[in-house]
Amino acid sequence: MGDGYHGRRTASGARFNTYAKGTADDPFTIAYPPHHIASRNGWPPRALVSWVMITNQANGRRIRAKITDRGPFARGRCADLGRSGANALRMGGTARVMLRLCCWVSGATVGR
């Protein structure tokens, strides 16, 4: 859940905060695969600094999170979420979730 990455720079240049509050000035953040990995798994590409709605399929809880990093590189995972976001979704580690694009930054590109 990102504890080992707390304080490190993400692909977008922002510092990763695994304890984010989910507010406008301290949003939940998510790592989403680069284009070539996403497309290989049938997932749509997402640009850095896009916003996604994440819904926990088991309990219906949802949050809005900002894509600030690339990853995960673990097989079978579509995204990595910080501890506070996972807690908000009441996940106990990994969970089945649904991701839906909310908005994106004009001019943002999907990198390889």
Can you tell me about this structure?
The chain is of the alpha+beta class. It has one domain: Barwin-like endoglucanases (Beta Barrel). It is built from 2 helices and 5 strands. Strands 4-1-3-2-5 form a 5-stranded mixed beta sheet. β2 (51-56) and β3 form a beta hairpin.
Number of domains: 1
Instruction: Count helical runs.
Output: 2
Write the CATH homologous superfamily: RlpA-like domain
State the helical fraction.
Answer: 10-25%
- Average pLDDT, to the nearest integer? 79
Oligomeric state of the chains? single chain
Organism: Rhodopseudomonas palustris
Protein name: Septal ring lytic transglycosylase RlpA family protein
Helix and strand topology:
Blueprint: E1 28-32, H1 35-40, E2 51-56, E3 62-70, E4 80-81, H2 83-88, E5 97-103
Parallel strand pairs: 1-3
Antiparallel strand pairs: 1-4, 2-3, 2-5
Quick gist of this model?
By secondary structure, this protein is of the alpha+beta class. It contains 2 helices and 5 strands, in the order βαβββαβ.
